[in-house]
Specification:
The protein is built from four helices and no strands. With 113 residues, the protein is mostly helical. The longest helix has 31 residues.
């Protein structure tokens, strides 16, 4: 259904930005409970805080494109749209944090045994 896809896609920038800020960034402090040293968590938070403004700007561009011109933007979804760039940027940021945290945890676990 085209109208359902339009409504869902138009909500994605806001939903993704909210989840990135609330669920992902909000949970970074809890990494210390998973055995990640505070210094690494602080570094990750700094990296995330540096990346957020450009991601939010990209998300706002995607939101505006989807609201103003769904007919021309819709066909570009799935690899060639600003929404794709925004979601990929958010996923890349999450991957970077998870890889760094898991790498450090593995290193800590190996040195503890």
């Amino acid at each position: 259904m085209g109208f359902e896809a339009a409504a869902w896609c138009k909500s994605l920038p806001e939903l993704t930005a909210y989840q990135q800020g609330h669920d992902f960034v909000g949970a970074l402090h809890a990494l210390t409970g998973d055995g990640i040293p505070q210094s690494i968590v602080d570094e990750l938070r700094q990296n995330v805080n540096r990346a957020i403004p450009s991601l939010l700007q990209l998300g706002e561009i995607a939101r505006a494109e989807l609201k103003k011109s769904w007919v021309t933007t819709g066909p570009d979804l799935g690899g060639r749209s600003t929404l794709d760039e925004f979601i990929t940027g958010c996923l890349d940021l999450a991957d970077e944090v998870l890889i760094t945290a898991s790498t450090h945890k593995v290193a800590n676990h190996a040195s503890a045994t």
